[in-house]
Amino acid sequence: MQHYIGVDLHKSSFHACAVDEHGARAWEDRFPRSEQGIEAFLERCPQLAAVAVEASGPTWSFADRVVQSVERLVVVDPARTKLKAGYAAKTDRLDARRLADALRRESVVGIYYPPPALRDLRELCRYRVSLARMRAAVKQRVHALLLRQGVTFPPVTDLFGRRGRIWLSALNLPGWAGESLGGSLCIFDRLTEELARVEAAVRAHALKDPIVTQLRRLPGIGLVLGSVIRAEVGVIERFPDGAHLASYAGLVPRVESSGRRVRYGALTKRGSAWLRWALTEAATHGFRRQDGVGRWARRLAVQKGMLKARPAVARALCTDIWRVWPRAV
Question: pLDDT digit string (tens) for 63-94?
Fold first, then answer.
């Protein structure tokens, strides 16, 4: 008999509920999220079992362990799968029951299950972006510190260039301001070293990836941004066109339509924030393009301003990415 199992997953444990094809509960239990707990869970799962688990932090390690032992595994998008209708309470037990019943009725919305190699590339690219952001934050902290100490006109243009670092090393700030400056510079140097190491790994991978090679044909996309886009998209075949790719990146406006009234709001910003960042960064170069897209982008920047034009250019870039991305043979 087919069983449908809902799993409410948490950091240290998970609650599972199994229902049969008629919706009757077969069993439910709580397990520790350890190797022994997952083994005990799999022992309770029949051979014909479909499992649904919501996407969250510990989902992928759990899914990798379970996927080969069940007939079907669905990683559920919690934002697009509504499970609380008709219930006044929310508990782990009820969440697992709702997931199981929604899976039985085929009313769950699953998300893409990236393979381990692609998830590893995502970790690499996201780590590189995080390091760059942390280093930029240290720079801003040093500039703010100098401003608080009354140093408003440094004699160099770039504080973190060669001449700027010599000047900062000779600067004598009183009390903990000096300690803060010295510590910030040490952190900056360590972040710079780590960023160079990680960026070298990103570039080495990008040079061997045929998809990144194709993406680099587009204006504004280099080795780093191409790697981020390649990692976050994964498989282009899951998007029927560039508009769906833009929606996944959260670069489409909210739409409220009722009768003849249609209202467009702000960007949804749903989906991959990392992909949205990479596309927006690449869109900066779109204003220098000499084709129709570039001329449209420059007109839009004059009419609407750069803050509104850049997401629009990033949205148009999704169509170019969808077009040049190599398809699986």
Answer: 999 999 899 999 998 877 776 555 667 888 88
Query: Average pLDDT of 276-287?
Result: 92
Domain boundary among 184, 208, 232: 208
Q: Which two tokens stand for residue 128?
A: 């590189």
Number of domains present in the structure of the chain: 3
Predicted confidence at residue 83, as pLDDT, reads 66
Say if residue 96 is in the same domain as residue 120.
no
Segment 259-269 shows an average pLDDT of 83
- Whether 256 and 295 share a structural domain: yes
List the one residue out of 3, 37, 21, 28 whose CA is nearest residue 93.
Answer: 28
Burial (0-12, 13-18, 19+ Cβ within 10 Å), 180: middle
Residue 109 counted as domain residue: no
| 234 sits in which H/E element | none
According to DSSP, residue 91 is labeled -
Name the residue among 18, 15, 77, 80 with its Cα closest to residue 49: 18
Residue 110 is assigned to a structural domain of this protein: no
What is the DSSP code string of 235-300? -GGG-SSHHHHHHHTT-SEEEEEETTEEEEEEE---S-HHHHHHHHHHHGGGGG--SHHHHHHHHH
Nearest Cα neighbor of 113 from 45, 51, 180, 172 is 51
Q: Are residues 58 and 88 in the same domain?
A: yes
